[in-house]
Amino acid sequence: MKNRKRSSIIALLVILALIVSGCGSNAKQAAAPKGPIELKLGHVLNEASPFHKGAVEFAKKVEEKSKGSLKISVFPNAQLGNDRTLAEGLQFGTVDMAVVGTATVAGFVPRVQVFDMPFLFRDAEHAYKVLDGPIGDEVLKDFQAKGIVGLSFWENGFRHLTNSKKVVKNPADVKGLKIRVQEIPLHVSFWKLLGTDPTPMSWTEVYTALQQKTVDGQENPIQTIYTQKIYEVQKYISLTYHVYAPAVILISKKTYDSLPPDLQKIVVDAARETATYERNYIKDLESKALAELPKLGMQVETNPDKEAFKAAVQPVYKEYGDKLGVTNLISKIIETK
To answer: Which of 27, 85, 242, 257 has a 20 to 30 A CA-CA distance from 159?
Structure first.
């Protein structure tokens, strides 16, 4: 009898040991790493664009800094949606990351329009000091209230006017032209002051609209005109330098908050470091584009009357300074040396 009891106790202990061993094994399996975190980053331009080159460099830096624990896949050509879809997706957390022109997110963060004021920046170096300094950081913080984290300002470049009708040298030359503009009120307002018929339109529709002559012209940085082959559907370009166009790299706050602190820091640091790479890429690309565009059929007006254009659009400073509450911010930008 005693032997039976002893055997039963031994058998019970063996079973308990197996159960504990199994639980421990399962715990180890649960704690085992599941592989790298993978995020998706979208933009609306093609693979030749600075947005794409910058995004690929950013993804490379993130993977290196995280030792492979965070990987970012880049989706160009509006594969994850057009500008508006990307911005809304960031808010809802259905899009992880995006590189967009600041005009794209003006509806969510109105103050970002301050950087689109015409003839605000003296040159690119002036813009970099503003965007990479306290003013830029202050505006980036506005995104958080909308469920988005602004990581860093990149670049789109100074914007210039193209059209299919005639050479443009001064404001009188643009009167009556139907110009595609970005979908923000500030741009509509200053192009109206110049006497054009401004037509807001999503970027994904622009090439076809120009090709079908639904609009006469558009305005964009030289690199965009070159990489997106706008020269195929436009004859004339005037180097007006009327607006410096920043870009911004963004991450959904839901995605950002899901990352551990060390990876959050890596994402921020990589975004800021990549700004220099992306800006330098644009500088080199625009030099190449200016040499190539005449060979591709565009007539380039290198010296339009910028002062006359600047004088014509001055009323927007008062209107939008008050409307956006950025009058003091404008003064700070102008005073930045």
So the answer is: 85
Nearest to 198 by CA among 211, 212, 222, 217: 217
**Residue 219 in 3-state DSSP?**
strand
Report helix, strand or coil for 75.
strand
Quickly tell me which residue has 């500008």 as its tokens: 83
- Residue spans of the domains in the chain: they are 35-335
Q: How far apart are CA 205 and CA 224, in angstroms?
A: 15
Residues 24, 291: Cα–Cα separation, whole Å: 68
Which tens digit of pLDDT belongs to each residue from 276-330?
Answer: 999 999 999 999 999 999 999 999 999 999 999 999 999 999 999 999 999 999 9
Instruction: Tell me if 117 sits within 8 A of 317, measured CB to CB.
Output: yes
Phi/psi of residue 122, nearest 5 degrees: -70, -40
Q: To the nearest whole number, what is the mean pLDDT of the chain?
A: 91
Q: What is the rounded distance in angstroms from the CA atom of residue 87 to the CA atom of residue 79?
A: 14
Q: pTM for the full model?
A: 0.85
Residue of 244, 247, 222, 286 lying closest to 125 (CA atoms) = 244
**What would the DSSP string read from start to end of 108-158?**
T-GGGGGGGSTT--SSHHHHHHHHTSHHHHHHHGGGGGGTEEEEEEEEEEE
| Cβ 230 vs Cβ 162: under 8 Å | yes
- Chain-centre distance for alpha carbon 46: 13
C-alpha–C-alpha distance, residues 43 and 247, integer Å: 11
SS3 content of the chain, % helix, strand, coil (to 5): 55, 20, 25
CA 102 from chain center: how many Å? 6
Q: Which of 3.40.190.10, 3.40.190.170, 3.30.1330.10, 1.20.120.80 would CATH assign to domain 35-335?
A: 3.40.190.170
SS3 81: coil
Which pLDDT value is given to residue 38?
97
Q: Report yes or no: 191 and 181 within 8 Å, Cβ to Cβ.
A: yes
- Per-residue H/E/C for 164-191: CCCCCCCHHHHCCCEEEECCCHHHHHHH
Those residues of the chain that have pLDDT short of 50 are: 1-3, 5, 9-33
